[in-house]
Write a structure and sequence with these properties.
heterodimer, A: alpha+beta, six-stranded antiparallel beta barrel, 12 strands, globular, B: mainly alpha, about 0% strand
Chain lengths: ~300, ~180
């Protein structure tokens, strides 16, 4: 192979050499990595850049939305009437329980008023549409089209029509980032609906089922049990469906049972979600010195990435 | 005039590139990365921005190099909601590698260039992976490597498309 020397003659000024530039920007990247993981100094920068990116993000969504609308337009009347009939039937079948629910709610309100207890959950909720799921294969995140302008705050719970989807972890002016319950180490305090056993469900990352840790092998739990939020963290209101127990392995010699569960909500596919308002504004103050048996720490200060 | 599916030969002298065209293609690459892909298609989505960036780093190193790559990496970090600096680092290294290997890459026909581009893109992806794993993330599945390979397959197409405005027109060639 012939080598042609194409080094520039010294009278062409080209600035610092590529290697010097690489070293400079490489070190800058490492500094940023450090600053962003250890301290969250750069949130303002992120917000500003996010604002700049927002129009581009909306722009690339337009073709998809247009196609969806065209398909919607041409969806046959037959399918719609069928849908309609099915929905009516469903409505009818659920009517008794809904009416019963209203009755219960009224009764509950009266009883709570009697007890002078604040309302457990203010009904403020924001419906949002999923813009896109994070491209990043390492984390389980969604971006939704409601942000600070609609009153969304970091830490709010996000559900769909079936159950808990995740938690708002970062808020931009017109969009918000939702970390899914399946994200690695994302924790949701749950209890077993059948037996009332409390635990915490930890996400295990992409493609793996979340698990319950630190459950003793004798705990009253079996495959098929439904898990609902226990509400003891002040983030998720109590009683939302979270997951179904997929398998329970009790091995002799192990201190804890190995319990995996399958999220109920369409965690990775629901197109619409509901962002619930702040659950309990009236949690008691944290004790001065946190003890080891504290309720599991949630959301705040969690590793992001 | 449709572009012939071949890179500019040594006998063909390219017109000077217009900076606005470079910017436009980089923004289009960024938008390509922002396209929401769901389900099965997601691992197939290549890093369009890295691909376009690589092309310009190889073709026009005096216009686009480490600094621009780094800034675009920061944009990607925000778009992906990942830790600041991780795409920036990967793109900066990618730009440097492109500058280092550009004379070698340009000697080959397009399909062989694509093979070298595959290595560069995989290296870029591996760098992101390294930063993530050091940060405590679990290892992704093997499909992680599919995106860069798809990107490499697109290389000939990207080259022909991005080179098109620079090809001398036939009328000019005949004169």
């Amino acid at each position: 192979m012939r080598h042609i020397s194409v080094e520039p003659p010294p009278f062409f000024h080209r600035g610092p050499s590529p290697l010097a530039r690489l070293a400079f920007f490489g070190l800058l990247s490492l500094a940023l990595l450090f600053a962003d993981t250890r301290y969250r100094y750069l949130e303002n920068v992120r917000q500003t850049v996010g604002m700049v990116l927002y129009p581009l993000q909306r722009l690339v969504q337009l073709p998809g939305e247009a196609i969806a609308q065209v398909i919607h337009f041409f969806s046959s009347q037959h399918a719609l009437t069928e849908d309609n009939a099915a929905l009516r039937q469903q409505l009818l079948s659920e009517a008794p329980s809904v009416q019963g629910y209203q009755l219960l709610q009224q009764e509950n309100a009266r009883l709570r008023a009697l007890l002078h207890v604040e309302k457990r959950f203010q009904g403020a909720a924001v419906a949002a549409e999923v813009l896109y799921s994070g491209r990043d294969p390492f984390t389980q995140k969604l971006f939704v089209d409601k942000g600070e302008a609609s009153g969304v705050q970091p830490g709010l719970a996000v559900i769909d029509e079936v159950g808990v989807v995740g938690q708002v972890t970062r808020v931009f002016p017109y969009m918000a980032e939702v970390t899914l319950v399946t994200d690695k180490d994302q924790a949701v305090p749950v209890k077993v609906e059948r037996s009332g056993v409390r635990s915490v469900m930890y996400g295990a990352g992409s493609g793996r089922l979340p698990e319950l840790r630190f459950l003793s092998p004798s705990a009253e739990i079996q495959a098929g049990d439904r898990l609902i939020t226990s509400g003891i963290d002040g983030t998720y209101p109590a009683g939302l469906a979270v997951a179904q127990v997929a398998s329970v392995e009790r091995e002799t010699g192990q201190i804890f049972a190995r319990v995996t569960c399958k999220p109920l909500a369409g965690v990775e596919r629901s197109p619409h979600v509901l962002i619930l308002g702040r659950a309990a504004a009236t949690l008691p103050q944290r004790p001065e010195e946190p003890t080891d048996t504290d309720a599991p720490r949630k959301g705040r200060g969690r590793r992001r990435g | 005039m449709l572009p012939s599916f071949a890179p500019a030969g040594p006998e063909e002298i390219l017109l000077p590139v217009k900076p606005w065209f470079v910017m436009l293609t980089l923004i289009l690459g960024l938008m390509g990365n922002l396209i929401p892909m769901g389900g099965v298609a997601q691992p197939l989505q290549p890093d369009f921005l890295a691909l376009v960036l690589l092309y310009w780093c190889i073709q026009e190193p005096r216009l686009i190099s480490v600094g621009v790559a780094w800034c675009l990496g920061l944009l990607m970090d925000v778009a992906d909601a990942t830790v600041f600096g991780q795409h920036a680092l990967a793109y900066a290294v990618l730009a440097y590698a492109a500058e280092y290997f550009r004379r070698r890459v340009l000697r080959f026909p397009l399909w062989q260039q694509a093979a070298q581009v595959a290595v560069l893109l995989l290296f870029c992806a591996a760098l992101v992976l390294l930063v993530r794993v050091v940060g405590g993330a679990p290892l992704p599945r093997w499909t992680y490597a599919v995106g860069p390979l798809v990107g490499a397959l697109l290389w000939p197409l990207v080259t022909v498309l991005l080179q098109w405005p620079q090809r001398p027109r036939r009328s000019q060639m005949e004169r």
